[in-house]
Write a structure and sequence with these properties.
about 600 residues; alpha/beta; 4-stranded mixed beta sheet; 10 strands
């Protein structure tokens, strides 16, 4: 049995069990719905009969009412179970869609991170049918942002290797990945990370976090309210007493409203999210890990206090605070100074634990992002984890394939780039596979530096910045031609070559928007400058004059090409890399093939 088939069955069996359990639950829910209706009608008949004929006492109708309430409790219980089972089904169904290569349009296509990024659009990192869509199972903003960061920016070899080890450890832990998924699916986001951060960093509102006088004042007024309510039953002035207390409390509330708003402002909205955040961290805290990153994450979540416990305490305070919004309880909550009391307790919590909120949210996002990569590794068992080295620049791969192309259609090629073999000039005719080759190298490079497996038989890479000019377009809004857009991007790529890590450049049809003479001079100058800065990369062209650049650049440059052949008037491509420059063009044959 192949690894892929085995892993597919790991999803299919629990999915079948969930479907069977869901069928049984639906039957139970239907039966209880009928029972509820019957009990309601019986109770109504009993009550009407008791009132009209006095055949039996009215309290007899309370028995059907009692059973009706019990039925409601079970009905709600089964509904919650069904909600969980539906999420379990979603988890395994989504995994099977990805395994069976039927995932496009069914996942997270978040395009918030593509703006102005130098390769996100070119390499299909985001959007429909993207790398992010096939990888991301994160449902919180923190998890999405962490995963996006790993796919968009290089990191040190040490950090990448640690992520790899963490992903390997989580790959077969389907239960943990499922639990994290179930929890986060019930959240809109982990609150609002920026807003919570501002809230936790704000200075203390009351006496540097020790509002003893205010607590005494609020407690005294609450006790006075209770006395005034009780006085209504034995004093003629009870109502006036109560009204006076209420006016004083209203005045106190108005005086300190701004301060109370400061305390509660950062907690707008995240009531349910705080509980779920606690659940995420609790699932993780209860595990023992061997990989350094996971072990460190787990240890940090237990220092200085168990993070899930602290967050659950905050969530409980917020829940109690929310009781004041209940219309039936709101008048009594006002008299008991419910909101001021809870605000002070929340302020006390913030002073004690607020500085840890950012790290806890970040940890939850990192857990989700690692689970996403682990799920991708589990669902692509034939892909390999690359060798990461800090001795670069280097990118070497054998049988490298594009991870977004169906495996059965994926044509694989080798690539060999290092400081001695810095540049590959890729010539070839139209539609022969040059751009796809660049995208294949770039997207696998992004996967490798995120800590994920890559589609190859072997793969070695050092941390690299990636710069590409594959989808260069003009812009009416910016008033920029394609050529101007290209040279602007090239300027960014040249600047990128001066940063912390070496550069991998992927230049497709360089200077396509100008004449052959200027193209050759400009391309030679750009590539020489990049090579001089220690960059490695590829340049594609169907202009055969650019193949001569290897003579100007020297031994660090090499010509390779993609070829085609015409058989019985049909143009065929094998999409395989071959040594040397291409020797002919297929433009005329392409025009002939479409009837021109």
């Amino acid at each position: 049995m192949t690894k892929l088939k085995y892993n597919s069955e790991k999803y299919e069996k629990p999915l079948a069990m969930a479907s069977e359990f869901l069928t049984d639950l639906n039957k139970k829910i239907e039966k209880i719905s009928h029972l509820r209706l019957a009990l309601f009608l019986i109770g109504l008949i009993y009550a009407v009969t008791a009132f009209s004929s006095h055949i039996f006492p009215i309290y007899w109708s309370l028995l059907p009412l009692l059973f009706f309430i019990i039925a409601i409790i079970f009905h709600n219980k089964f509904y919650k179970e069904r909600e969980n089972i539906l999420l379990v089904k979603d988890f395994f169904e989504e995994g099977l869609f990805r395994i069976k290569e039927n995932w496009t349009g069914k996942g997270n296509t978040n395009k918030n991170y593509t703006s102005e990024h130098i390769y996100a659009e070119d390499l299909d990192i985001f959007g429909k049918g993207s790398l992010f869509e096939i990888i991301c199972t994160a449902k919180t903003r923190s998890g999405e942002e962490k995963l996006a960061k790993w796919l968009l920016y290089p990191d040190s070899a040490t950090n990448i290797i640690e992520r790899q080890m963490a992903v390997k450890e989580l790959t077969d832990d389907i239960e943990l990945r499922k639990e994290i998924y179930l929890i986060t699916r019930k959240m809109r986001s982990i609150a609002n990370p920026q807003k919570l951060q501002q809230w936790s960093d704000a200075p203390a509102v009351f006496n540097n976090g020790n509002p003893i006088l205010w607590r005494i004042l609020f407690s005294f007024m609450a006790a006075l309210s209770v006395i005034s309510i009780a006085s209504m039953f034995f004093s003629d002035f009870g109502l006036a007493f109560l009204a006076t207390v209420a006016i004083i409390e209203w005045s106190i509330g108005r005086i300190y409203k701004k301060n109370l708003d400061k305390i509660l402002s950062g907690l707008d909205g995240p009531r349910n999210e705080l509980k779920k955040l606690s659940d995420i961290l609790m699932n993780f805290e209860n595990k023992e890990f061997s990989s350094p990153l996971l072990a460190r994450l787990g240890k940090n979540l237990l220092t200085p206090i168990k993070s899930s416990t602290a967050i659950r305490d905050l969530g409980r305070l917020v829940d109690i605070l929310d009781q004041a919004k209940n219309q039936a309880f709101a008048p009594l909550a006002f008299l008991l100074m419910w909101t001021p009391h809870l605000s002070i307790l929340i302020e006390k919590w913030r002073i004690k634990y607020g500085e840890n909120i950012s790290s806890w949210i970040d940890a939850a996002g990192e857990i989700e992002a690692l689970c996403s990569l682990a799920g991708y590794a589990f669902e692509h068992p034939d892909d390999i984890f690359p060798e990461i080295t800090d001795k670069g620049p280097v990118l070497k791969a054998a049988a490298l394939g594009h991870p977004l192309i169906q495996n059965s259609r994926c044509i694989r090629n080798d690539v060999n780039l290092d400081i001695e073999n810095s540049v590959l000039i890729v010539s070839g005719s139209n539609m022969s596979g040059k751009s796809t080759y660049l995208r294949t190298i770039g997207i696998n490079g992004a996967l490798a530096m995120a800590g994920a497996p890559v589609r190859a038989e072997s793969f070695k890479i050092s941390p690299l910045y990636i710069g590409s000019t594959i989808r260069i377009e003009d812009s009416l809004q910016k008033g920029a031609s394609r050529f101007y857009a290209e040279i602007s991007t090239l300027k960014d790529i040249v600047d990128l070559a001066q940063k912390e890590y070496p550069l991998l450049f992927l230049l497709d049809e360089i200077f396509h928007g100008t004449n052959s003479h200027d193209r050759k001079i400009g391309a030679e100058a750009i590539i020489k400058q990049l090579v001089k800065s220690g960059a490695i990369g590829l340049v594609t062209t169907h202009d055969l004059t650019l193949a001569d650049m290897t003579e100007q650049i020297g031994t660090k440059a090499k010509n390779i090409h993609f070829d085609d052949e015409v058989s019985k008037g049909v143009l065929n491509f094998d999409y395989k890399v071959k040594d040397g420059p291409v020797t002919r063009s297929n433009a005329i044959e392409l025009m002939r093939s479409v009837g021109l």
